[in-house]
Amino acid sequence: MHTTVIRSGLARLAAPACIALAALGIGSHYSAARPPAPLVSPAPTTIATIDLVKLMQQLTKAAVLNNQLKARNDERQKSINEMVDRLKLMKDEIDALPKTAEKEKRDLFVKAYELEQTAAGRRDALQRVINIEKGELIRELYQDIQAAASAFAVKNGYDLVIVDDRAMLLPDQATEEQMNMVIQNKRIMFAAETLDVTAALAQEMNNQYQAPPATTPADPAGK
Asked: Which structural domain, as residue segments, surrounds residue 162?
């Protein structure tokens, strides 16, 4: 009698556990059978490419700034050209002096040497100034292009605008290091021509560009 009571008590205790395990089994079965939630695919990215070299060649502002820079450099070059002309005259004068005029030749030679060194120094200084001004010009144009490309992308629904570097070709002969550097700097292997918006961006930038008015020399008479 005592034994029976113990067994029936164990049975009563084990029953809820079996029901719980069965419930877990059923739940895991349905969980495994339920299909996974579908993955949300990202929206397709709209990409445009621009050729920086071609773009700058087509920009009205680039042509205006280059012409202004050339005019300034031509004006600066005039003083150097005058020195070169004087130097040539001095050398002709030295050659024309008789051999007996040693002192006159020596004095002229010293003056010609000083003038030659001055002209060379100004020429080097002018070249450095030209290089700096060209760098500033390129910087200004690039900033304009960057701002215009951003506005163009927003206006026309582009998600990404990248520089097309396919025109940068590998050199025919180069060291392993040089060749690797060129390859590492290249980003685009292929791009469809339909992605190119260079002409459209150039036209939009030219339409928005206001060329500065041409300056005229001041009238010395004040008229």
From this structure: 47-208
> Between the CA of residue 24 and those of 30, 37, 107, 204, what are the distances in Å?
10, 22, 113, 67
Total tally of structural domains belonging to the chain: 1
CA angle 143, 147, 153 (to 5 degrees): 140
pLDDT tens string 71-129: 999 999 999 999 999 999 999 999 999 988 899 989 999 999 999 999 999 999 999 99
Please give the single-letter amino acid code of residue 11: A
Flag whether 78 is in a domain: yes
